[in-house]
Amino acid sequence: TKALLNAKIGTIGVSPYTRGRKKMLAGYTFPSNFDWVVIVEKDEQKAYLVVSKMVNGLITFAMLGLVIAVAGAVMFANRIGRPILEIGRVVKQVGKGELDVRVNIRKSQDEISALGKQINQMITGLNERFQLQKFVSEQTIDAIKRADDGGICLGGERNTATVLFSDIRGFTAFSEKHEPETVIKMLNMYLRVQAKIVHKYMGDIDKYVGDELVAVFQEKDMVRNAILCAAEIHQEVARLNKEQPWDIRVGIGINTGEMIMGAMGSEERM
Question: What percent of the chain is predicted at pLDDT more than 70?
């Protein structure tokens, strides 16, 4: 029958039909030299077995390919997304003022790692600037913020302000009788207390000169704030003397008037 079908002799055809509830597929031919017909029938499912296997194989490979694609996408997203989320977390903490955080740098030398290194360098620079701010007054920081692209220029402008000068009495005699480490400890202890009170009354510490503290008060209640600050400094120094083996005395002077406020020195060091 296969030979007849393959030889394409006479009329050849394939027709589906149903026998009972079973779907069948029949192939038939009318040989030209015979007056009878040759019929081959087969269960339709078996007849299309190869096609079914091909379709099933195609579905299997498609699903496998989809799984591989999804897994690859997850791995790629994890490789890219996790470092970005880490950078976002660190930047958010820096925005809150936490300058001790750092981005965990991956070993790979890609753009994300380079970005992480730059973020860490930026945080280091911010931390350095934050630490440097402790060595200058708030007026200096405000002047830097107000300066144009050319930076701060030498000179100043006339303003009315109240200045408080606080000086430890007998400091020279004290430093001659004690070790340098003890002198520094005492200075930091008493200056720290005074600085806290100055900030409480909205003063700005302009500088420390040895055992002296210079604070500037401005705005509406500057005179009153400076006087209240001085009175509380005397109270706190007396309290501190009771806790320490030293008898420290502080002299305070207050002056209000017009003054030139600005930068002096040289362009390299003001």
Answer: 81
